[in-house]
Amino acid sequence: MKYHTGKLYWPSTLPNAAQYPALDRDLHCEVLIVGGGVGGALCAYLLAERGIDAVLVERDRIAGGSTLASTGLLQYASDKTLTSMIRTFGEEPAVHFYQLSRKALERLKQIAEGLNGAARLTERSSLYLASSERDMTSLRQECDTLQRFGFSALWWSESEIADKFPFRYPGAIYTEGDAEMNPYAFVHGVVREAVRQGGRIYERSPMRGSERDESGRIHCRCGEGRVTARHIIWATGYEAQQFKKERGAHLRASFVTVTEPAASLSSWHEQCLIWETARPYLYMRTTPDRRIIAGGLDEILPGGKLPEGREIRQSHRLLAEIQRRFPDQSHLTASYAWGAVFGESRDGLPYIGPHPNYPGFYFLEGYGGNGTVCSMIAAEMIVDELTGNRRDDLAMFSLERSSKPVPPQGL
């Protein structure tokens, strides 16, 4: 499946991205990571940090898949509100997931502090807007729920929003401590650090099959070579759906536009991350060179495939949404526009962990709009398990889970 179409912005920000060799020999390692996106990169980094011998293979180029289509908003809040999660799962697992997300966001910031240039994160506040009066009650309740469980959240009235922005909304949740990233540069920075600590990286080396021997080691045909490993981390994102379908997951099309640089962003309070309660999604952020990124307008995948050229029409709609909220940017044009495959789970949680049909494999599938944060949760859980630190809360994200996740133990 093709995972993005159109003109992508992020490669232009890192024109001299590092390249890695194709695998043309036989190797032995403790852990083989399949996939060179954000999830695979974080696994390689954590394993190298703990001194575990790991090899990462990528079918194409590092950060060349769904990472290229990410808009790089990092928030502890999920697409599914904490209030809604509590109704679905109960208080303990719902709050635990939000706590894991907050912790993962802080871990991402910590990792980024050791990286250089565009790979670093920029801390931002977030504004979650009530798109209409009918959304006010549920959004205000969500603010109260977040505050009750110790999460950063303030309620802003219509007048408080209007004092800081050139638009009016009935109300909003304002939070601090979120972040924005350049996902392409971040993944390259994380991979470079993994290599510095002993990790081995191979591009253009697709995995073509595997066999498990009597000792439990797995022999994988990758590129023009073979890798023998004790464990496999499958971090190919939505591609896993092509051979192992999760009953509660589905794929959609999402769209992004990136403007030319603005002369000024002075009307955009704190250049905070903006998102709304209305569906389909609409969210916005800025870049270090004063561009505006807007994304959303999710829709079904017609025929199960990403439509070529659809991003052009959707880009016009997204640009109009930017200009409706920021009239001072009415002259801006779109410089980049793309469409991308976007995965969601029915219950709002990622899929993480082993699967009985694939012994020795751990899967990392960060479904939802907070994919990078969920990938950080997954990478730490999987690496903990592989290094002898049992994670009982891994059961929450089981690939075979029912609608009710298993509550974490001992919390």
What this model shows, in words?
By secondary structure, the protein is of the alpha/beta class. The protein has a domain of 151 residues: D-Amino Acid Oxidase, Chain A, domain 2 (2-Layer Sandwich), CATH 3.30.9.10.
Query: Secondary-structure element sequence?
Result: EEEHEEHHEHEHEHEEEEEEEEEHEEEH
Secondary-structure-derived class: alpha/beta
Task: Sketch the major β-sheet.
Answer: 10 strands, mixed
Number of strands: 20
Strand content: 25-35%
Instruction: Give Rg in angstroms.
Output: 21 Å
Assembly type of the shown chains?
single chain
CATH architecture grouping of one domain: 2-Layer Sandwich
SS element count, helices: 8
Helices, strands, pairings?
Blueprint: E1 4-7, E2 26-28, E3 31-34, H1 38-49, E4 54-57, E5 73-74, H2 82-89, H3 91-113, E6 122-129, H4 136-148, E7 154-157, H5 158-164, E8 171-180, H6 183-196, E9 200-202, E10 207-212, E11 218-222, E12 225-229, E13 231-234, E14 249-259, E15 273-276, E16 282-286, E17 292-300, H7 310-325, E18 334-345, E19 351-353, E20 361-365, H8 371-386
Parallel strand pairs: 2-12, 3-4, 3-13, 4-9, 6-15, 13-20
Antiparallel strand pairs: 1-18, 5-8, 6-8, 7-8, 10-11, 11-12, 14-17, 14-18, 15-16, 16-17, 19-20
